[in-house]
Amino acid sequence: MPRCQGHYSNSFLLYLFASFFICLKALGSSMSNGLNGHYQCAETELNSTEGELFLSEAFKVILEEAVHKATDVKEKVCEWKDPDQLRDVLDLELRDHGETHQQLLQRVRDVAKHSVKTNHPRFFNQLFAGVDYHALTGRLLTETLNTSQYTYEVAPAFVLMEDVVLRKLRSLVGWAEGDGIFCPGGSMSNMYAMNVARYWAFPQAKTQGLWSVPRLAVFTSQESHYSMKKSAAFLGIGTENVYHVKVDESGRMIPEDLEAKIVHAKSQGAVPFFVNATAGSTVQGAFDPLDRIADISESNGMWMHVDAAWGGSVLFSKKHKHLVAGIERANSMTWNPHKMLMAGLQCSVILMRDTTDLLMRCHCANATYLFQQDKFYDISLDTGDKSIQCGRKVDCLKLWLMWKAVGSQGLANRVDMAFANTRYFVEKLKKREGFQLVSEPQFVNVCFWYIPPSLRGKENSADYKDKLAKVAPIIKERMVKQGSMMVGYQPLDGRVNFFRMVILSPQLTQSDLDFCLDEIERLGRDL
Amino acid sequence: MPRCQGHYSNSFLLYLFASFFICLKALGSSMSNGLNGHYQCAETELNSTEGELFLSEAFKVILEEAVHKATDVKEKVCEWKDPDQLRDVLDLELRDHGETHQQLLQRVRDVAKHSVKTNHPRFFNQLFAGVDYHALTGRLLTETLNTSQYTYEVAPAFVLMEDVVLRKLRSLVGWAEGDGIFCPGGSMSNMYAMNVARYWAFPQAKTQGLWSVPRLAVFTSQESHYSMKKSAAFLGIGTENVYHVKVDESGRMIPEDLEAKIVHAKSQGAVPFFVNATAGSTVQGAFDPLDRIADISESNGMWMHVDAAWGGSVLFSKKHKHLVAGIERANSMTWNPHKMLMAGLQCSVILMRDTTDLLMRCHCANATYLFQQDKFYDISLDTGDKSIQCGRKVDCLKLWLMWKAVGSQGLANRVDMAFANTRYFVEKLKKREGFQLVSEPQFVNVCFWYIPPSLRGKENSADYKDKLAKVAPIIKERMVKQGSMMVGYQPLDGRVNFFRMVILSPQLTQSDLDFCLDEIERLGRDL
Predict the structure, then answer these.
(1) Angle value at C-alpha B165, between B163 and B169, nearest 5 degrees
(2) What is the secondary structure of A471-486 as a DSSP string?
(3) Which domains, and CATH codes, for chain A?
(4) In chain B, which residues have their Cβ closer than 8 Å to the Cβ of A389?
(5) Smallest Cα–Cα separation from B379: which of B148, B153, B147, B161?
(6) What pLDDT, in 10s, does the model give residues B310-366?
(7) Could you tell me if A106 lies within 8 Å of chain B, comparing CB atoms?
(8) pTM (two decimals)
(9) How far, in whole angstroms, is CA A140 from its chain's centroid?
(10) What three-state secondary structure class fits B353?
């Protein structure tokens, strides 16, 4: 670890000066508006001085409501309102005439107040949580610069930056060369993989459609993400051509069943072309055995994709990257730095081992108004035609700035800390009466039942499962209405509703984890 | 117009107080760090006080570099660097160890400096430009709240808000009922339309794939957006099953040729199921004759989609909405408020007339971990399964806040102003020697050649076209390298490279438009 130099005093002085400068500027603007000067007149365009002042004031509201309070453990995670109440509070209707500056600032405050605080240390509800202040800075800059990622012409810094970030991510996978692109979310990244695999196997599908190729078969585990089904439907392959491979109790794909399913599909006349392995499944956090799956993919001439949207970040950690051993043998992978790394929604990449420009060849349409061939710079920098989008948000800056801020080592620490916090939580949970693991966690998802006193020791009653199934939804309702914490639940493959605790934010403390167990007990002990 | 009240003084006092409050808080934090207190240590997580201070300082840099200077007509539109130079300046490489706070603020400044200023009054290069300060506020709040649009549980305000915004947009189309969703860009919205149309015509395609349905045919004009081809490729329909319908000189689809192409496709054994009409084509800004196309779609039992990504905003204007007369007869439309309305990238919707829940039925996959059926609230509010994405960015807030700020009337004014500025520019252009329109503009795209003195009067020379084709690229290179303005060019259907001027931002003045003509002349008169 490098030594950190004290430089607070300097930056603090700069900060003071800057504050006074803005105040003086605002004062000048106020005076020039005269005695009857109004700040903003509805239905007119703001001039730049008014606009900047509004932005500055709104930023303060955002900082207070959506950052400061939102990360304060003493504040609520959410402020539940029934939809009808919430509609009234927010006054959502859009009208002919505009509103004043003060009204708009109040709206910013109201929206923040009635939004779920995903930045809160007690938000465990999704595969994202917490706030990274550097990534957030990158996001604010991205929004302000408002450009599209398609050409070097309008996004010079971001074209180069995307390339560097993708290359660095690939190097963690073990790919010295390759390709990739940022996509709007993991489902889209998975769709890209399936489409590129199809093009690789049957390039004529791009031009002539699926009528020119045999029926295709996709393989993925029973506990893989639902985007596999969505992808198959959207790409015209059909959900019934997705073969769901059995998993073990922890949710890992059983390779022998993959082999059997491939044989089965072939016997039905389908052509197996795509295997999706999961690294970090959505519910149990399971890691499929990648090396075994790679063997099977290779021997069947199939494209192997790894949906590591959730689990990919273990690649940063020396201690935990064994979970994805073999990933370098895959053809492509999905990885969402907006999840465990906290880059902010949305930050998802599809990475590929291919060096033959498959991504571009598969997706290009050569629009002449955008990708002119007679530009004065190297047009290989116009990477937009690799995408199925036209305009494409800049998603690399937030990850890049965060990475610059904490280094690969800082990101590795983040991953290791999440595992350590999970271990802590699991040990505590195991010692508590009334808490029961669904399976031993491999990752930072902890799946467990809370069994209220009335159900303990009654595992053999006929209605035990029905009663247990109702516990998590009621506790969830109570926690949301009180705003004390948020954690998800679901049934899975014959196992009735259980909680899925997701432990990722380095901002949560052991006391937040203790609180979680206490709170579930408090909310559910009467059930 | 409502009267605006003067309330500047109050807000200014509040602002002063807030500034001092933040300074005091920072001072406290500094002191608590002790004499050796450092502001940010690389590779460690920021605590909330440090994080908020960093955010505040970074915001000031963003405001100065990406708003204040970026909108200043005296500053450059872009700061051209060759890729190798730019890589050096930005120091893009990602390393093991993190950086100090001051270094990171400098990086924010550097990225802003070397990005294209799409907010600048002389940026005419894409179908977006300018800045709306209210929309930008909505975007900053969206990023800070960092949630996903899929469930009422984690996005209560935004689920309701999306519904209101979509309903209001539909009402402008003339649809009292219907459906819709925000998508990551217009290309994706167009893909949604094609997929829903396919499901509507052949629902078995979702489950059994395209092998269960006859070969499908898509119809779109020669000057429609390239996303139609990308959609057909991605959805497994194939680019060769896209029939390109002829256009008139202004770029409008010729209905008689649509009929002929449908007959032709049928004769080849294909099933016509989808017509895409364009409202505001990308290059010429052409509006296809929607009523005629609706007649043809209806009589052939086809789904009619309107790609109004660019032109849809004319619906706000009483004066100009005749351009999309008949749009209410379509089955679906794409509309990008991030273009003419300036909502910020990305803000795109697919709107549908359907009231049978087609969008949900077509895309749903019923993930049990997300869309639990035993939630305590009305689960019809969990609209995420309408999407092909899983996590989905909140794109409604920026549009909603902007709309609240200026009202429908303000947005109408914005559209009318763009048309008026375009008229001004066209009249000026027509009076200038050496400027020649490609076609009479219907919208706010102005396509024209600049003919340098050396080529004037030589229209009949054998090499005239070859020489003219080289003019726009050279002028473009010069303007980018000098950073004086940005405007696009392209060839089109036998017409050699011409400029496409896009006039949309209400922040540009007539002097910016005069400048554009002067500048092209200045940069090109020696050619």
Answers:
(1) 115
(2) HHHHHHHHHHHHTS-E
(3) 11-120 (3.90.1150.170), 405-524 (3.90.1150.170)
(4) 184-185, 187-188
(5) B153
(6) 999 999 999 999 999 999 999 999 999 999 999 999 999 999 999 999 999 999 998
(7) no
(8) 0.92
(9) 18
(10) coil
